[in-house]
Amino acid sequence: MKLHVLHRTRFKYETSVRDSFNECRLQPVSTGAQSCQSFLLKILPPSRLSHYLDFHFNYVHLFEITQLHSELSVEANSVVTTGDVPVIASELTPFPLANIGECLRQERCYDFLQSSTYVETGTELWRLALDVTAGQTDAWQAAQTIMQYIFREFRYQPASTNAHTHMREVLSTRTGVCQDFAHVMLGLCRAIKIPARYVSGYLYNGPADQLKGAQASHAWVEVFIPGPGWCGLDPTNNRLADGHYVKVAAGRDYADVSPLKGTYRGTGKRHLTVDVLVTRMEDDAPKDSSAFAQTQTQSQSSS
To answer: Do 6 and 284 meet the contact criterion of CB atoms below 8 Å apart?
Structure first.
């Protein structure tokens, strides 16, 4: 599929602020079946941009606004092509769950087997993970069982949590949004030594689809299976990541992939609005993504 993604963030401050230093992780990656064909980042007030790849190979853009300003707008426009076919379970060579601990010796997996800012892997979680995956002997099947458990036992409720909610609270209330369900799945997978990483991005909700989390930034999980490598699973919608998903960044948890974060000097009273829209583009549709974005926006609640 060919998708256009608009992500606009606006801050309005009660009084003027200054010395705003920020970093964005908003540019989709080109990897596997996904290709980012264009990306445009607009900052108002205008600011000079720089960029680099972080430790997890995510695109990071930096900007600073030292002068006084009462509003800040960050708008990202992307055109991405995605593959339509996810990893099919039947095509994966079985890998014994009993041997999954071998991944610990691989450098690319080590960080995704540990506790992190919003995820823990203690004894209680290990016991729960064992109960959830009881009877499973294959690592891929065990990961899917964990995904299905979260989809079945947890309730999706927008605005029930915030960006800094720890998975402990979500396990207690059994309520949250896609970010929370991803954190819970990370903890359960890591507790039984399945490497798992947090993925941020977007979800296209086609005319016939009823997918949760498509009205905002989305989050899902990738697990590492020796052989095929990283495979995407979405516990919010109980499905494999396919061409509906646009991957932006991956990390240990949300703290590594926040779309926009920074500091500034001035009032703490501010109003934040975020608009996200993912639209399928026809081959003959206009390619001017900035013009497209000016006429098609919708407000989001946190996913």
So the answer is: no
